Amino acid sequence: MAQVSGIINQNVGDLCMGMKSVNLRVIVLHVGDPQVVKGGQTVKACKVADPTGSVELSLWSPWCECVQESDILQLSNCYMGVFSNSLVVYVGGGSVSKVGEFTMLYSEFPDISVKMTDPNIPPNMGPDMRPIHPNSNMRSGYNGNFRDHRNHRRGQYPRPPPPFNR
């Protein structure tokens, strides 16, 4: 972690699923094409990095119109989530500030976003399924299937498949 102007920044290499109140100082390596989603909002997928690795960043309007490649950003109060089986930084109710251009040491590897190779094991989770990071909100016994997990809590069990008839 590095402290810059009173803000304690995490390293990209230390990020894991379920983290909240994440502060990062990163350089933008790639800005994806804008996608218009339901409700008319625009979203862009960006690849950002610091000296410890790179990660995917999801930017919604109005921030996605302002960010360009090689911008150095201060991301405050973000959270980590999963989209399409990849770890992603979401700004949510946080903020994005441009603090510079071009001059920042970074490493594209490891790419933290592609850690999720097995969809049944979340990133940075051990084989016994205990959270490694103390800010992780995942519980012991998590089986990787959100729908079955929620239905079990409500007392609703998924309907079994129909019998096979020849």
Q: Provide a count of the helices.
A: 1
Q: What overall geometry do the principal axes of the alpha carbons give?
A: globular
Q: Round the Cα radius of gyration to an integer and report it.
A: 18 Å
Order of helices and strands: EEEEEEEEEH
Low-confidence spans: 125-154
Number of DSSP E strands: 9
Oligomer: single chain
Strand content: 35-45%
The helical percent reads under 10%
Helix vs. strand class? mainly beta
Question: How far apart are the first and last residues' alpha carbons, in Å?
Answer: 62 Å
- Write out the strand line-up for the largest beta sheet, numbering strands in chain order: 3-5-6-8-7
What does this structure look like?
It is a single chain. Mean pLDDT is 77; it is low at 125-154. 5% of the residues lie in helices and 36% in strands. The chain is mostly beta strands. It contains one helix and nine strands, in the order βββββββββα.
